[in-house]
Amino acid sequence: MTRNTLQITGYVLTNRCLDGVLIMGLYERRYRKGLIAGISVLLFLMTAAVSGCSWFGSSESKNKGTAKQPKAITCPLCGMKVADGSLINRRPLAVKVENDPAARPQSGLDKACVIYEEITEGGITRFMAIYLCHDAEVAGPVRSARPVDIDLASPFQALLCHCGGAPPTISAIKSSGIADLDEQAGTGAYWRSRDRRAPHNLYAGTERLRSDGNVKYPFEGEVGEAFRFLDDAGIEELARIRAEEAERLAQHQADPQGEYQPKVNLANGIEIPYTKVCAVSYNYDTATGRYLRFVRGVPHTDLTTGGQLTADTVIVQYVVESVSGIKDVMGADTPDLGVVGSGRAQIFIMGQCIDAEWNKSSRQEYTRYYDYDGNEIQMKPGLVWVQLVPLGKEVTYQ
Ligand SMILES: [Zn+2]
Question: How far away, in angstroms, is 132 Cα from ligand 1 center?
């Protein structure tokens, strides 16, 4: 295990992973370009500051214009407005939902604020669905936890809801101090459906999970903001920028004379090649500003509503995959995913891709996402899908 530190344009990136040197090499190449761009932007901002203009979405002027308005209550995890503040003053849930083909379609993923997709044994992915401002009457199928789940759930102060895990994982959960509601520890919050065979038939409702969890882990804290979010003006601005770029591209395609230099990276379709059975893709829907989710080329739907799952923001976070030393009941190796440290990311919002980096300084800290100028990226309010993609698998988009 190595720990690398890299000072870049005023902030420090740390990296804790087996292939840290590889990643840092990538960074250094990227940042030679980024540094030049960063200096240019800095000079521009200094000029802008002197002249009194505000270039970044004029947050100052917007604040002036809305100063008399009562501040809307928004969910700290998904950025959506909530009518009742009590909905966000409770402990988030982190529910482990399986993605074996026999588990599809799942239930309740559409009610989550944030969903992590992580690769497990045999190339099958599994979800960690974080619930706060919405409740799901039915969520699942619920399956076992993995070592990476502790790092992912901790900053949310979430109640980890799962069905067992390998003995070393259970030991790690217990020693971590995380709030834990394991079905195999005897809680009655889960039930088995007769519509599916075990182990693909364990479900739970979020209200019961939370009330049972509160018995052992009463929550009196405050849920920290997991992401920064765009306001309405920011969303409109991105829609305008996308429309302009699409128009430029269309003009170039109609008359391909001269060189076409895109100002932004249009991303109408995203392909995430986890494995054949868990190949994920997203298609951008201009009408709603959301990405529609597909698995193996067919719509990924919710069992309860029949509707297709969507993403307001898709975060592709490249992580180092290594061998954890833990095996599942079939003897297959459980991969370990390095989510503490830093690495490369791609943020897909409003039909565009922003090249980014992620940084999570410790288990307890949220992961933050920055553009190559060092600005923290603002997500689109709504469901955030975080796709943890092992280094070496390249996500493509067009
Ligand atoms: Zn929310």
Answer: 5
> Do 321 and 119 contact (CB within 8 A), yes or no?
yes
Q: How far is the CA of 211 from the centre of ligand 1 (A)?
A: 18
Tokens for 186, please give them: 């005897």
* φ, ψ (nearest 5 deg) of residue 323: -90, 125
pTM across the whole model: 0.82
**String of DSSP letters for 145-188:** --THHHHHHGGGT-EEEES---HHHHHHHHHHT--EEEGGGT-S
Range of the domain at 24: 1-55
Residues in the chain: 398
- 230 Cα–ligand 1 center, Å: 14
How far does the centroid of ligand 1 lie from the alpha carbon of residue 74, in Å?
Answer: 8
Distance from Cα 135 to the centre of ligand 1, integer Å: 10
Q: Is the peptide bond before 141 cis (omega within 30 degrees of 0)?
A: yes
For residue 15, what pLDDT is reported? 34
CA of 265 to the centre of ligand 1 (A): 28
Residue 59 has a CB neighbour count (10 Å cut-off) of: 12
| pLDDT tens-digit series, residues 91-138 | 999 999 999 999 999 999 999 999 999 999 888 999 999 999 999 999
Q: Is residue 386 part of a domain?
A: no
Best CA proximity match to 111, nearest among 347, 310, 340, 396: 310
Distance 323 CA to ligand 1 centre (A): 33
SS3 333: strand
**What residues contact 397, with CB distance under 8 A and at least 6 apart?**
265, 267, 268, 269, 270, 271, 346, 348, 353
Number of domains the chain contains: 1
Centroid of chain to Cα 201: 26
